[in-house]
Amino acid sequence: MTEEVKEIMFREHEEYMINMGPQHPSTHGVLRFEVYLKGEVVTKLVPHCGYIHRGIEKMCEKDTYPQIIHLTDRMDYLSAHINNEAVSLCVENALQVEVPERVKYIRTILAELNRIASHQLWWAAFGMDLGALTTFFYGLRDREKILDIFEESFGSRLLHSFITPGGLMHDVHPNFQKRTKEFIKYFRKKLPEYDQLLTGNVIFQNRTKGIGILSKEDAIAYGITGPSGRASGFSCDIRKKYPYSAYPFVQFEEKLSHEGDSFARYQVRIEEMWESMKIIEQLVDNIPEGDYTAKMKAVLRLPEGEYYQRVETARGELGVYIVSTGEKFPYRIKFRTPNFSNLFIMNKLASGGKIADLIAISGSLDLVIPDIDR
Amino acid sequence: MLTSIIYDFSPLTHRIDQFLSETFSPGWAVTMELVIVGLVFLLFYAVVGLFLVLAERRVCAFIQNRLGPNRVGPEGLLQTIADLLKLLFKELIPIKRADKFLYNLAPFIVIIASFMAIAAIPFAKGLHAIDFNIGIFYVIAVSSLGVVGILLAGWSSNSKYSLIGAMRSGAQIISYELSVALSLLAIVVLSGSMQLSEVIASQESGWWIWRGHLPAFIAFLVYLIASTAEINRGPFDLAEAESELTAGFHTEYSGIKFAFFFLAEYMNMFIVASFATTMFLGGWLPFHIDGWYAFNHMMDFIPPVVWYLGKTAFIIYLIMWFKWTFPRLRIDQLLTLEWKYLLPINLVNILIVAFISWKNWHF
User: Fold this and answer.
1) What pTM does this model have?
2) Has the ipTM of the complex gone over 0.95?
3) Most exposed residue of A25, A144, B180, B320, measured as fewest CB within 10 angstroms of its CB?
4) Which chain B residues are closer than 8 Å to A364 by Cβ?
5) Does some domain include residue B242?
6) What is the DSSP string of A15-67?
7) What is the DSSP string of A194-208?
8) B83 vs chain A: nearest CA distance in angstroms?
9) Domain containing B163: what range?
10) With pLDDT > 90 as the criterion, what percentage of chain A qualifies?
C-alpha cells in the first residue's frame, strides 16, 4: 500500500467539506455555505455572508433622507417599494407629517404588487432549485406583467425609488388603475397553473414535505419573520399587528400554517399571493383624488431623537431605526432586514438532511443576498 | 431500384458485399466493410446528436412558452453546428492535481459505450449492423459500461462536486440497470428470442405492447422510467443536478471533452428510445390492425425507416417531456423507487409474463 493510499484511507473520519458558493446556482447570489458532509448527509453548515457588503448603513450617514431612499432599493431589490416605504414612513412619523389618502392607497397597492412580483420570482426560482426548470419561465412570464405596470409609471422595473418621504416622486401613470385591474384579472386565471405545474406533483411533495421543519419556538427565538415564520405558526404579519398606510382600511387574512416544513412555507407564499390580490382589488377602484405628496420642506431635518418603523416586506419584517441629532443627515441608521435573521436558521434546519434538502430549505426560506449583506 | 431499397435494404448491402468480395481478397473485403459500417455510424452518430440537441431545445422551449433557437439557419437548424464549432475552439482548461490519464480517458469510455450499443440497433429491414443471437444481452452489457466513464470522470477531476456526482451516478445506474434488464426480459420471454431481428419478426401480427396484455404495458412503463434514470436525465439527473452540484461529474470538463459527455447523453437517449421501439412498439414494422386490409396496405407504403424513426421520436419526446416538467428526485427517494417499487413490480411482472407465455394466452 503506497503512502498516498494510506493517507486517503485513514482520512475517512475527517469531515468532507465543500464550499457551496459564492458562485453557485442555488445560493441565489454571492452567499457561501461551508457545508460539512458525511456521504450525502449534511452534518454542519456555516453560512458566510459579506461578499456584497456595500456599507449601505454607513453611506446613509452621509446622505439626506430623500437620498437614503435610493440606497434602500438596493437592499432587498425584490421588494424595493416596501423598503422605500419603510424609510419614508419613519421620516414622516418623525416629522409628524400626515400624507394624503391617495398616497396611502397607492403605496399599499404598489407594495402588494411588489409582494406578488417577489413571490412569483421566488416560485420560479424555487422550482428551479428542485430541478423543475419550467417553473422559471411560468413565474417570469407573469412577473413581467407587473414589471410592465411599474415601468409605465416610474420608468424603472426593479429599483424604483418611487416612494419618498412625504408621498410619491410623482403621480402614477393614468393607465395605472386600468392595468392593475387587468393584471389581477389575468393573474387570477394564471395562479392555479402554478398549482397544476408544481404543487400537486408527487416528486415535489416528497422533496418538500417534512423537510427542514422549523418549530414555532425556534422561529421566535431566531427572529424568523415573514412567510417563513408564519409557516411555523408564528403570527408576525406587521400589516395586521401594526397596520400602516392603507392596511387599516382593507380586509385580508394573515395566512398561517403549523407544519413549519418547506411545503408549508411554499403554501403560505402561494396563499399570500391570493391575499395580496384581494387587497389590491379592494383598493384599486377607490384611490381618492388628491395630491401625490404632502407639503414638505426643501431640506428635511429630523428632530433630535430615535425613531423606529417597521413594515412587512415580501420576506418578513423590515425595521428602520434612525438616530437623529437634528442634522439633515441621520447620525446613525440601522436596518433590521428579514433575510439576515432568516439566514442563520440554515444550520439548524439543514443539518442531518441530504444535500438536496439543503437546497430545498434555502430555496423555501427565499433568501435575497444583498438584503443580508447591505 | 431506389423505391425498393427504401423498403428493404438487404439487396443493397448484398450487392456491396458481392462487389467487395469479387474485387478484393476475403480479408480485405471484410476490413473494408467494417470501415464502411464504421464511417456510416460515425456520420449517423454526429447527425443524430446534432439533431437531438436542437430537438431538445425546441421541445423545451415549446413546454416553457418560448420560441427556442430560430435564428441560425432555417428554423434554427444550424444552431447546434454553431454551438459545436464554439465547443471545438474552446480552451481545454487544465486541472491541477487531476489524474491526467483517467481524466482524458473518461469521455472516450462514455462515448465508446454508446457507440457500441448503437451497432445492435435494427433501423430497418436489412439495415442492421450486427444481428447477434444474444443481441439484447449484448446491449444491456455494453450500455452499463458507460458508468465506468462517469465514475472515472468524477474521481479523476479532483473536484468534490464531481466526486459526489459520480458516486450518485454509480449508485443510480447500477440500481436501474436491473429494472431495464428485467423489463426487456419480459419481452424476451414473450418473443422467445434474444435476437433483435427475431424479436421484431415476432411482432409481425401486432406489437408486444398490445399483444402482451397488461404485463407488457407495465414492462414498458418500467422500462421508460428505469431507462430515463439510466441515462441520467431529468427527473433522475442527480449526477448532474445543476442546482446542487453545479454540473456533477462533468463540472471540471470544458470544450470538446464536455461536448463528448453531452453528445453521449443524447445518444444514450436515442439508444434507449430505439430499444423501447424495437422491443415494445414493433421496431420498423408498420402499424397494422387485423382485418383492415386497405388500411394495413396503406401503412405498408410508409417506409420502415420512417416508422422506426417516428416511433423513436415519440419515445424521445416522452423522455424530454419528463425532464422539463418534473422536479428532481432526491438520492434516497431515487433508490427507494428502484429497490422498493420498480424491482418487485418487475419481478412479479416477469413471472406473470412467463405464465402467459407458457399458457399461450397472449394474442
Assistant:
1) 0.85
2) no
3) A144
4) none
5) yes
6) -EEEEE-SS-TTTTSS-EEEEEEETTEEEEEEEE--TT---HHHHHTTS-HHH
7) HIIIIIT-HHHHHHH
8) 21
9) 79-359
10) 5
